[in-house]
């Protein structure tokens, strides 16, 4: 049951508005009310009805409980950023070259993530990239990025699946899927534009015979963790 305390509700509403960086006028316009009405809500002089509560919840991206008290964060493994960095560089093979993209991770109550696909430099301000927004979830050693773009074409939705080893290794292997397209990727914490190093990455992005066999057997892309034999043995022994 919701027992609205106008004073406490008003304080929480003001807090949410300031967190969002909105003025009284902007909130009023967003929910089709007047500025004085929003002021009265915040001062505890007016009790909102259910329709207003739902509009405010949608505006501030909280559930109804979040309108009355600060939502508690219940972090599980799914909410963790396992990479110990908020910026990663993704390398994958195009038709004639290794393509580079940037993945950023924001530490919120859930891990919001942004993919800047096909950048040309170590900058998210490059004019050539395509921006995707989405989320990161981590479970049982696997990180899942799910992205969407406003552009309506074959790459409207993109998914990355990355295996995160229980070590300090800063090279992460996984795959990228976009509709019926899939390919092997490498995530690094550093931006590389040296041609020789990019050639090494290109070789590392080759699908091994074991990986092809696994793909054929399972009928989906489950890329092996590494081309290095000792690492492969290590992770096979952990499974």
Descriptive account of the structure:
By secondary structure, the protein is an alpha+beta fold. The protein has 2 domains: 6-67, 434 Repressor (Amino-terminal Domain) (Orthogonal Bundle); 77-224 and 232-238, Lipocalin, CATH 2.40.128. Helices cover 30% and strands 27% of the residues. It contains 7 helices and 8 strands. The protein has helices at 6-20, 24-30, 35-42, 50-60, 195-204, 209-218, 229-238; strands at 87-93, 98-107, 111-117, 130-139, 142-148, 157-163, 171-178, 181-188. The chain has an 8-stranded antiparallel barrel with strand order 1-2-3-4-5-6-7-8. β6 and β7 form a beta hairpin. α2 (24-30) packs across α3 (35-42). Mean pLDDT is 77; it is low at 224-239.
Mean pLDDT: 77
Fraction of residues in β-strands = 25-35%
Q: Please mark out the parts with pLDDT under 50 across 5 or more consecutive residues, or reply none.
A: 224-239
- Tell how many strands the DSSP assignment holds: 8
| DSSP summary: helix tally | 7
Can you tell me the number of structural domains? 2
CATH architecture of the largest domain: Beta Barrel
Radius of gyration over all CA atoms, rounded: 23 Å
**How is the CATH topology of the largest domain named?**
Lipocalin
State the major sheet.
8 strands, antiparallel, barrel
């Amino acid at each position: 049951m919701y027992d609205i305390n106008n004073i406490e509700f008003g304080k929480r509403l003001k807090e949410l508005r300031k967190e969002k960086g909105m003025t009284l006028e902007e909130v009023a316009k967003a929910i089709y009310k007047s500025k004085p009405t929003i002021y009265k809500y915040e001062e505890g002089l007016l009790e909102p009805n259910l329709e207003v509560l739902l509009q405010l919840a949608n505006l501030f991206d909280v559930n109804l409980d979040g309108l009355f008290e600060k939502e508690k964060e219940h972090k599980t493994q799914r909410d963790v950023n396992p990479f110990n960095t908020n910026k990663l560089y993704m390398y994958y093979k195009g038709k004639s070259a290794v393509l580079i993209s940037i993945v950023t991770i924001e530490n919120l109550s859930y891990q919001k993530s942004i993919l800047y696909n096909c950048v040309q430099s170590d900058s998210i301000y490059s004019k050539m990239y395509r921006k995707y927004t989405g989320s990161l979830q981590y479970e049982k050693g696997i990180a899942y990025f799910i992205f969407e773009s406003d552009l309506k074409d074959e790459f409207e939705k993109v998914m990355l699946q990355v295996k995160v080893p229980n070590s300090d290794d800063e090279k992460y292997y996984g795959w990228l899927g976009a509709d019926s397209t899939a390919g092997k990727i490498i995530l690094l914490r550093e931006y590389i534009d040296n041609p020789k190093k990019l050639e090494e990455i290109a070789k590392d992005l080759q699908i091994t015979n074991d990986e092809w066999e696994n793909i054929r057997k399972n009928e989906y892309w489950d890329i092996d963790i590494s081309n290095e034999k000792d690492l492969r043995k290590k992770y096979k022994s952990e499974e």
